[in-house]
Amino acid sequence: MPLFTRLCLGWLVAIVFGAIFADLIPGLQDPDYQGFLFGTSTTNEPPSLTHLLGTDNNSRDILARIVYGARVSLVVSMTAVVMGTVFGGFLGALTGFVRGKTDAVIMASVDVVLAFPGLVFLLMVVTLLGRRDLLVIAGVVGVLSIPPYTRVARATALAVSRREFVMAARAIGTRKRTILFREILPNCLPTLMAFALVNAAVIILLEGALAFLGLSVQPPTASWGNMVNAARVDLRINVWPVVWPSLALVFTVYSLNVVGDHIRRSKAVRSAAL
Amino acid sequence: MGTFIAKRLVRLIGTLLAVSFLTFLLVNLLPGDAINALIPIDAQQDREFVEQVREEWGLNDPMLVRYGRWLGDAVQGDFGDSIVTSRTVSSEITHRLPVTAELMLVTVGLSVMLAIPLGVMAAYREGTRLDQVISGIAQVFLSIPGFVAGLLFIYVFAMKLGWLPATGWNRLSNGLLDNLRTVILPALSLALIEIAVYTRVVRSDVMNTLQEDFVLSARAKGLSDRYILFRHCLRPSSLTLITVVGLNIGTLLGGTVVVEFLFAMPGLGKRLLDAIFQRDFMMVQGITVFIATIYVLVNTAVDLIYMLVDPRIRKAD
Prior knowledge:
The structure holds two protein chains of two kinds.
Chain A lengths: L2 H18 L41 H37 L1 H15 L3 H12 L4 H11 L1 H16 L2 H8 L4 H37 L11 H8 L8 H34 L1
Helix pairs in contact in A: 1-2, 1-10, 2-3, 2-5, 2-6, 2-8, 3-6, 4-5, 6-8, 7-8, 8-9, 8-10, 9-10
Chain B lengths: L1 H26 L3 H8 L8 H10 L6 H13 L13 H36 L4 H14 L3 H15 L15 H34 L3 H9 L3 H39 L4 H10 L3 H29 L1 H6 L1
Helix pairs in contact in B: 1-12, 5-6, 5-8, 5-10, 6-8, 7-8, 7-10, 8-10, 10-11, 10-12, 11-12
């Protein structure tokens, strides 16, 4: 793996580690209100030894908030990817294999959901649900990412269903259910994985936008998007509280794209060698 | 061919109906909210008054009846009145649409104008430093969301350099130059990701087209590289670009909401956001259905154009 891709992978691993083990990191400051309550105000401080990236306009340590904010982005994107692959992948493979009326009904519903521009639909549903905790947001994003995966899985399933080994399985009288799980689904997985990698990056950006609009988790819970939104009020005075979470967001998405491209390229070579 | 178009139209109308019904359903799932928007909470003590308002606004009727009523009005262009401001939804939409439309047109225009030469150059010089630089920059742009880019531009161009205004909007009717000054930063923020996507698409498509036989024969005829690239390669490659542009309109629509929020532009996206926060369900419904309709229409148009231009697809359907 080229050095640059290795660096990006390292960043991703660091982010995941930081998100999971945030409480165990030695010396990490509390991401919530600090000096504010105890009479000492340390708003908008530049980087120092106690606050490695400085503080935001509510005296909270920026580095800690970035680490905890990674949790939100990761949970939401992982939920979306898992739900999409499991439910969307299964649904798409099913409908691609079975065809007929089921196919028409399922694809019509998928088309309806996909007819809405993503963020607009997300906005509506999130607002109408009212609650803004992480689980709800992750759930909504997860459910709304099922249709794209269904489409991808269906396209692959359509192609796979025409292959000889599926016809052979049918000919010897294998039950459709068995064919679906043994032949169709495993062949859909590589395409689904490739799509999932791209989708994860898109979901992180989507959650960032949602948080920026104030419709994701609420402060004091940190999310990269709502850190940027909170900090942009004082953009003229102090640009750094906006810069750090933005950089975290951009680096993470960029690393996902770089690593994803690398995996896709190496996989492509392997299948050609066959 | 005729039956194909007819079938497509039927699907289109079906999708639009389903979309509007789904929106209606979602918006009306919490009837309490509608009442809260009509009467402030403290005035809800009087049961009779609340019932009276509910009757007046038809909130007690079954969902399908209400949807039918809304639909009947909607196809005549009447999307109802906003609950918060007493203006009609359609007047708000017509008032705000030009802003969003201009933003999207400028964004797509800019992105396509930049992506085509970049993509063609990268494909022509595939594997060289130029290709690597262009692809690398595209990958970076792909990771910069609209609000980050917007804030960056605001900081550099509005705060530090003072060349362009940070917020606000000057209507076209007030003067082209003023209008351009307010549209360029928002459009650029949205365009970054689009440029990246389109460049990649153009690049891979031109790379494929360059391998075709007709390019070799054009070369053999002695045509210059530039002529081949821009006259022969571009047309088949532009099909994918058109499709991708059409598909990306959805993401772009979402992006305009964020950018309009950031730059305080009086467009549809910002209005939708405000309506959502104010629980103005008529407005939310009207704008969402409007946006979804545009999106569905654009996708159908792209499909039809694709069919018309590429004869192979026509036969395959």
